[in-house]
Amino acid sequence: MPNNWRVKISWAVAVIHSFALLWVHSVAPARAEQLSIRHYDVSDGLAHSHVSAMFQDAKGYLWLGTWEGLSRFDGYHFANYTQRDGLPDPIVNDIVEDHQGRLWVATNGGGIARLNDDNTPGVTFDHPRPKFISFQVTDSPRANRVNAMIFDSLNRVWCATDGGLFRGSSETDGSLKFELIVPYEGETGMVAFADKEQRLWFGIDTRLVEVAGDQITVYGPQDAVGRQRIKSITEDAQGRLLVANEGSIFEMAPAAGGRARPRQLPLTIKSNQGIEVLLADRDGALWIGTWTGLVKLRDGKQSLYTDAQGLSDDKISSLLRDRDGNLWIGTVGGGVCKLSSEMIVSFTRAEGLPNRDVRKVIEDRNGNIYASIENGGLVKLSEGKAQQVEGSQTAPFTNFNERLVQDARGDWWVGTDAGLFRFDGPLLQLQRGHKFTSRDGLDEVAVGGLYTDAGGRFWVSPENQGLYCSEPSPNGAVSFKQIISPNSETLFNGVLRTIADRSQTLWLGGHEWLGRLIDRNLVMLPITDGLPETRPRAFFADSRGWLWIGLRYRGVSVTKNPSDANPSFSNFSTASGLASDAVWAITEDDLGRMYFGTGKGLDQLDLATGRIRHFNTDDGLASDIVNDCFKDRAGNIWIGTTLGLSKFDPRAETSRDAAAPVYLSRVQIAGEDLRLPETGANQLPGLELPAGRNNLTVDYVALSFQGENELRYEYKLEGVDNDWSAPTSARSINYARLAPGSYRFMVRSINRDGLISPQPAFFQFRILPPIWQRWWFVALAALAIGLVMYALYRQRLARLLELERVRTRIATDLHDDIGANLSLIAMLSEVSRGQLENGDLRLKEWLATIANTSRDTVDSMSDIVWAVNPKRDHLRDLIRRMRRFADDILAAREIELEFRAPENEKVKLGADLRREVFLIFKETINNIARHSEGTKASVDLRLENGLLSLVVSDNGKGLDPTPASDGHGLNSMRARAERLGGSFEVVSEGSGTRISLSVPVEHRFRPSNV
């Protein structure tokens, strides 16, 4: 081959190589690390895995339009809406909200539909009703295939359809009247957007339509932006309007005459890549969904994310940034992906790790990051990929763990299971080095621990050989000297971890002990309240000079005065909020926040606020089991886990000022659903419930898509609970058999930062008492009882009055008729006896008997009349009659009488009581007059404590008080006392007799058995 051809070919090869390099650097490089991405598809409840549209409403719900219906997501569950719910077509192309906060969807054949979601919650129990109200654009099927929709400043709806651009206005009857604005006949997807100046922009095939008031401007192929189909329109944080066609992105820059001038952005999109959707972030990043992945353009640099970084599908159909900062990525066949942030990215075997168990991460003097892999040697992280360090694939360099240190000169010291090595730096390589042997003071045995202090000395712990320290030789060589003998009883299994505090005192740790090296003597530390165990897993000296000790099973302890003779400690554990008490690694970020690697993820402790945050696989960590954590000079935290290596950027961490709002999503009363808006309610109007509807079930949800699994809820039912409940992850509560009364149910959320939602969701209700407990029923019942009692009283009163009238009539009749007749008999008998004094003696005797009997009958009749007369029902009447009777009888026998009676004579006595007491008294007085042969008698009548007591005594000869000697009179008196429910007693001691009677004033008369 001639030389000139060689020159031409060499030149051509160089040119081709240059173009190839230029093309390689111009296209978006695919990133190697894994992103913190979570997937949702039909297995999670999504209506369909083709997600064509996404929208977050005013409350915070996420709505996803799919090819088989509309899905609503609250962070936990999907609620799906199909044609059975009133959706006019299963394919949803767009989702928007009008100025009244009502949700609208554009469908691919059914026109548009509005969610039938009452703004004011109902108070009646739920009845079936359509959940959507649909509107036809026209009668044309093409016009009802609505690709995009938007509302203008006058709340008119604009619909970009296969039949053209239409504008709809509300009629008085609630319907929509549409008019054609821009004709079109085609089947190409369209887009709509409203900018900050209230201008409307529509992409219709290759035309870009601008609507500013009544002015319409159309951009086409002659304007460059229309050389390909318009795919997406957005506005960035600087207010630039960005329009993407299939292969380019243009800024619609203002120009003279009011017509914008398209200016193409520097972006490389391959011919088969195809732009589908744009999203501009507040931080200046532009996200571009394509058919081959997600492109991120920022500061002129573009990166490509694909399924290698965790996407479920490389074909991107829609994008959304929610209020919590999550990026939602709708795909053609993989459902939706949630990119929480780029705060944590991970490296696994796909990125070049020999295996995924990362034991140690270090940074060299030039900022290169190295990772030690369990039984996998060393890797260097470069441009998002792991590159194996040459020589680390063979023993004894396949397992370093924590035994890797770079000294001040840049040389590398490597502890292995075969002894200690030193290799020339500054790049880490395992080719040119020196192995330390017994000539250097070290045996060729496994190295347990390796540490270099601020003075450049190396501390080495060969297996079962104590602790050694390096000493420089005059010729520049390094030798080692034993500091602690393995015969020491306190050294146990050797030194595994070493660190120097701010006074350069060495802290040493083994499997079962913790100590300090003071004057080359090992001083053990005792267990204290702040240091609950002495089995360290990790040491760390922070920027404040504090010393942190990760413990095996008791959390982490810290001393602020590590140089003191007796340092004091404070402890953090699960009781303080840590996720685990097993702390394997410790580091600190540039803000002074502490990080603890545990068996349950990475914990962040903010010492200024005391707040503890947890990061785990849900946040993007490669694994929840953390072996090591380390901060590089750029401020990134590297986390070595059992399933890969993660990089955490604390500057990308986001937090909210308050917890998410809470909504009542379902209320069941006695098993029946209360009618609520589809999107729930923050509060409900007051309810009055009958007594039988006293079972209540309430479901609630806080709308947060950042740390939703760490949300906790507190609730209380005023009227039952005095305080808020303990925080719980449960989103439902049931109250059974509530008592009648007024209640107020409240619920609030607490996010992972400990912040409480600004306002609780609540509703008030009142359970009515049963009918028989209501005031009007009680009042009516009391009135009825009162009326009945009054009627009974009136009836009793009438009977008493009638009885009194009968008693009066009987007394009158006895007195007027019988008494008069008996008196006449007595009188005539006396007259006859006087006239016959000299006659027949027997006739005289008979007449005398008639006279005596008549007088006795008159006296008895008088007693009966007195007893039944209602006018004599008082104690004074009894006293007067008793006094008069006693005076008449005893005076005739010349017996002196002493009569004592109570002053309260107005007490009313029953007729039976008066009669029986008087007859007992009468019999007693008659006995005294006839049989006592005494000269004195006393009567004592008292009324005390509801008892009427009568004591009659004399100074006569007395009588035998035994029942055997009782005559008819005493037995009769006892019987009368028993009928009154009282007691009767006769006391005679041979000289005088005392008769006692005690009867209750209010008594039930006991009829005689005779």
Describe the structure.
- The protein is α+β, with helices and mostly antiparallel strands.
- Among the domains are: 308 residues, Methylamine Dehydrogenase, Chain H, CATH 2.130.10; 106 residues, Sandwich (Immunoglobulin-like); 99 residues; 138 residues, 2-Layer Sandwich (Heat Shock Protein 90), CATH 3.30.565.10.
- Helices cover 16% and strands 37% of the residues.
- The chain contains six helices and 70 strands.
- It starts with a helix and ends in a 10-residue tail after the last strand.
Oligomer classification: single chain
Alpha-beta content class:
alpha+beta
CATH C-level label of one domain: Mainly Beta
- Note the gap between the termini: 164 Å
CATH superfamily of one domain: YVTN repeat-like/Quinoprotein amine dehydrogenase
Highlighted features:
elongated; single chain; Methylamine Dehydrogenase, Chain H; 70 strands; 6 helices; five-stranded mixed β-sheet; 37% strand; 1010 residues; 16% helix; Immunoglobulin-like; alpha+beta
Layout: helices, strands, pairs:
Layout: H1 3-26, E1 34-35, E2 37-40, E3 51-56, E4 62-66, E5 69-73, E6 78-81, E7 92-97, E8 103-107, E9 112-115, E10 132-135, E11 146-151, E12 157-161, E13 164-170, E14 176-183, E15 191-194, E16 200-204, E17 207-212, E18 215-219, E19 230-235, E20 241-245, E21 249-253, E22 261-264, E23 275-280, E24 286-290, E25 293-298, E26 301-305, E27 316-321, E28 327-331, E29 336-339, E30 344-347, E31 358-363, E32 369-373, E33 377-382, E34 385-388, E35 404-406, E36 412-416, E37 419-423, E38 433-435, E39 447-452, E40 458-462, E41 467-472, E42 478-484, E43 497-500, E44 506-509, E45 514-518, E46 521-524, E47 536-541, E48 547-551, E49 556-559, E50 570-572, E51 583-588, E52 594-598, E53 601-605, E54 612-615, E55 626-631, E56 637-641, E57 644-648, E58 662-669, E59 672-673, E60 683-689, E61 696-702, E62 712-718, E63 732-735, E64 741-750, E65 761-767, H2 775-835, H3 841-868, H4 875-892, E66 896-900, H5 911-932, E67 936-944, E68 947-954, H6 968-979, E69 983-988, E70 993-1000
Parallel strand pairs: 60-65, 66-67
Antiparallel strand pairs: 1-30, 2-29, 3-4, 4-5, 5-6, 7-8, 8-9, 9-10, 11-12, 12-13, 13-14, 15-16, 16-17, 17-18, 19-20, 20-21, 21-22, 23-24, 24-25, 25-26, 27-28, 28-29, 30-57, 31-32, 32-33, 33-34, 35-36, 36-37, 37-38, 39-40, 40-41, 41-42, 43-44, 44-45, 45-46, 47-48, 48-49, 49-50, 51-52, 52-53, ...
Helix pairs in contact: 2-3, 3-5, 4-5, 5-6
